[in-house]
Amino acid sequence: MPRNKATRCLFVSLALALVLLVTSANAQTSALLWRSNWETPKPDPRSLNAVAQVFGAGCGSGCPNATLGVVQAAARTGTRGLKVVVFKGSPEAWRVQMVTPVFLLSRGMSYTYCLWARSSSDELYGNRALNLDMMQASAVTFATVQSLPIVVSRNWTQFCMGVTELPTSFPTLNFNASSTSYLWSLNLAGSGDRIEFNFDDMTLTGRPNNLDATIMSKTAARIEQHRKGNFTLQIKGDRGVALPARMVTSFSLTQIKQSFPFGSAIQPDAINLLDPEMRPWFLDTTASMFNSIVPNSMFQWPEFEYAKGVFEDKQEMLLGPMYLGFAEQNGMIMQRGQALEWLTTDFGFGAHWSKQDGCEAYKGYLQTRVIRDVTAFKGKFQMYTVWNQLLHDRDWGDQCQLFSRTVKEAFWWANAADPNATLCLNDFELIDGERWASMLQMVRQWQREGVPIHCIGIQAHLTPDLDPSVIQFRLDQLALTGLALHITELTLRTVSQPSPRFTGSEQQQADALVKYLSLFYSHPAVKGITLWGWWDTGHPVTNGGLVRTDQTMKPAALAIQQLWSNTWNTSITETNATIVLDADGGYAFRGFYGTYRYSVRLTTGQRLTGVVDFPMPRPLLAGVTPSQTVTLSFPTVTVRSPPRPPSPPSVA
Ligand SMILES: *[C@@H]1O[C@H](CO)[C@@H](O)[C@H](O)[C@H]1NC(C)=O
Ligand SMILES: *[C@@H]1O[C@H](CO)[C@@H](O)[C@H](O)[C@H]1NC(C)=O
Ligand SMILES: *[C@@H]1O[C@H](CO)[C@@H](O)[C@H](O)[C@H]1NC(C)=O
Ligand SMILES: *[C@@H]1O[C@H](CO)[C@@H](O)[C@H](O)[C@H]1NC(C)=O
Ligand SMILES: *[C@@H]1O[C@H](CO)[C@@H](O)[C@H](O)[C@H]1NC(C)=O
Ligand SMILES: *[C@@H]1O[C@H](CO)[C@@H](O)[C@H](O)[C@H]1NC(C)=O
Ligand SMILES: *[C@@H]1O[C@H](CO)[C@@H](O)[C@H](O)[C@H]1NC(C)=O
C-alpha cells in the first residue's frame, strides 16, 4: 500500500542555481538536453555543472563533516568526476547535497534524468535511504514531487528518474515554462560515516511523449488483434476421412474458458472464517467470475511462518481443498505466491523472527524460506512476487546491505527451486506515478547480469480519473524490458487518506473499471489482471468491491461479467445451410484464446461433443499470432461418398 510522500524544504540558494529553459527538439527520439560531466572547468550554457554543496552552520555537533572536489580519480569517463567524502554523517541529510540546475520543463514532453554513481562501500551504512529527489522549485520552497531510493555500490551504476506530465492525479505536475521549474537533488549526509561517493555523466533527455488521446477508441481493435487467434477445428470420421459439410445439420462452438488470467486476491482465512452457509456462495461466485486467485497475506513470511519452523498449518491451508485445491478443481489457470519477501517494517515484517539474529543469519533464513516454499508449492503457484515494493521499501535492506547481491540471489534460489515459475517484482506508482523509469532502469541492469526475472507486477491502486493515454505511455515504457506485465492488485478509490474509500456512484465505479480493464486487456505486454478482492466485506477499499455486503451485485460486477462472457467471448452456431468445411473437414474461425465446447449434429443422427483448447501462445511473437489446428477423430462416424451424379448417356 502506498504511503504519502512528505513535502520537504530545501535550503538551496536560488541564486546559485542556474535556470535552464529546456525546450524540445521536435525529434521523435530522445534528445540530450543537458549534460554535466565535470569536464569543463568553466561551465558553459550547454554543459553546466550541477552544484555540490555542504551546509555547516547552525547544526552544532550534528553538523556533517564532508569534502567536495572535482578530481581525475572520480571520473567514470573523461578526466574529471565529482568526489564527495562524508567523514561524519548527519541526521539532516540535506546538509551535504548535489543538485542540478533548475530546469523549466515543457508541456507534452517526457523527461528522464540520469546520473552515474559509485561509492567506497558496496552499500550505504546506517538506516537512512539515499534518495534521489525530483523537486518542484518555487521562489522560496522546494517540494518533493517524487523520490527514488538508490543503492550505490563500488561498481559504477546509472540511476534514472522519469517524469511525464499527468494532469489529473497526484503528484500534479504542470509543465509550464512560465510558471514552474524542477531540479533533481541527492542528499548525502545521511549515508553514514567515512563514505566516499563519485558522480559523473549526469544527463537530462527529453522527447515528445506522443500521448495518444484516442487510445480508448482503439482498444476494441487492439483486443481483436492481440487477444485472438486463427483456429481450425478439423473433424475426421472412420479411416481418417474428412467430414463433409453435407453431413452436418448443426454445429456450435462455445467458449467456456479464457486463457487470459483474470483473478482476485482471496485470503484463505476469509473463506475459513465465513459462516458455513455463506461459503458455497463465496466460492461459487469466485469461481464464476475469476480463473485465478492470489492469497492476500497468508503466504507472506510473517504470517506463513510466524515462528521459526512453524509453517505446516499455513502450508496445509494454502494447499488444501479450500484454497489451491479449490482453484485446481475449478480449472483455474494461474496462482501467484504473494510475496516471498517484502522489506517493509509494517505488517509484522519488521518484528519477524528472521530479523532478530543479525544480517548473515537473515540471509540464510531467507534462502531456506525461498527454496523450501517454492519447492513445496511447485506447480501450485505458477508465479511469485519475489520482492514486494522494492522501489519503495528497503528498511532492512539498508541495514543488511541486501541490494547488491541478496535481492538478486533470491531470484536465483526461486528459479532453481522451480524453473517453470514466473518470477516477478511487484510495485506501485508504476502506471499511476513515475516509478516506471526506475523499474525500467533496474530491470535492464538485472537483465544484463542475467538475473532470472520474468515479469513486472503492477499493483494499480487507481483513482477513476487517470488519463488512459498516460497509462498507455507508461505500460509501453515498462514493456521495453520485454518482460510480461501483470496487473496484480487492481483497486479503485476516490479517497486515499486516512484510509482508501470509493465515494463515487456505483455507475462511475463500473465505467472506470471497464475503462481500465479494456485498456489493460488491449495492451499486448499485459499477461494477466488481478483485482485485490471483489466483495465489500473485507475489501481493502471501503465500498471498493464489485459485490455489496448483502451479496448483491453492483453494476461493476455485471459490467465485468458482460465483458468476459460476451464482449470477449467467441461463441458460434452454424446450421447445415451456413457451415463451410474445407477439404480436410476443417472449420476455420477467429476467436479469443481459451477452451471451447463443440457440438456437432450429423445427418446420421449422431452427436459429437467435446472440449478443445486453443491456448494463448507463449511467448507470443510480436505482431504475429500463429494459427492453431486441432484434429478430432471419430472412427464411429462413417463418411460415405456423395451419391454420384448420374453418368451422362454414352454416345455410341
Ligand atoms: C573532518 O574529518 C577529517 C577526516 O577525519 C578531519 O581531518 C577534519 O579535522 C574534520 N573536520 C572537522 C571540522 O571536524
Ligand atoms: C502557464 O502559466 C501562465 C501563468 O499561470 C498562464 O498564463 C499560461 O496560460 C500557462 N501556459 C500554459 C501553456 O498552460
Ligand atoms: C487470421 O484471420 C483473419 C480474418 O479472420 C485474417 O485477416 C488474418 O490474415 C489471419 N491471420 C493469419 C496469421 O492467418
Ligand atoms: C562489481 O563488478 C564485478 C565485476 O563485474 C562483479 O564481480 C561484482 O559482483 C560487482 N559488484 C556488485 C556489488 O555489483
Ligand atoms: C515444467 O513444465 C513442463 C510442462 O508443464 C513440464 O513438462 C516440466 O517437467 C516442468 N519442468 C520442471 C523442471 O519442473
Ligand atoms: C461465452 O458465451 C456463451 C454463449 O453465450 C456462454 O454460454 C459461455 O458461458 C460464455 N463463456 C464464458 C467464459 O463466460
Ligand atoms: C438442412 O437440413 C434440412 C433438414 O434438417 C434440409 O431440409 C435442408 O435441405 C438442409 N439444407 C442443406 C443446405 O443441406
From TrEMBL:
Spell out the protein name for this chain: GH10 domain-containing protein
Organism source for this protein? Haematococcus lacustris (Green alga)
Q: Which UniProt keywords apply?
A: Carbohydrate metabolism, Hydrolase, Polysaccharide degradation, Signal
Which BP terms does GO give this entry? polysaccharide catabolic process
Which PROSITE patterns would you find in this protein's record? GH10_2
Annotated GO MF terms: endo-1,4-beta-xylanase activity
Protein family per UniProt: Belongs to the glycosyl hydrolase 10 (cellulase F) family.
Signal peptide as annotated in the record? 1-27
Under PANTHER family, the record lists: ENDO-1,4-BETA-XYLANASE 1, GLYCOSYL HYDROLASE
- Spell out the InterPro entries in the cross-references: Galactose-bd-like_sf, GH, GH10, GH10_dom
Annotated coiled-coil positions are none
GH10 domain location is: 250-563
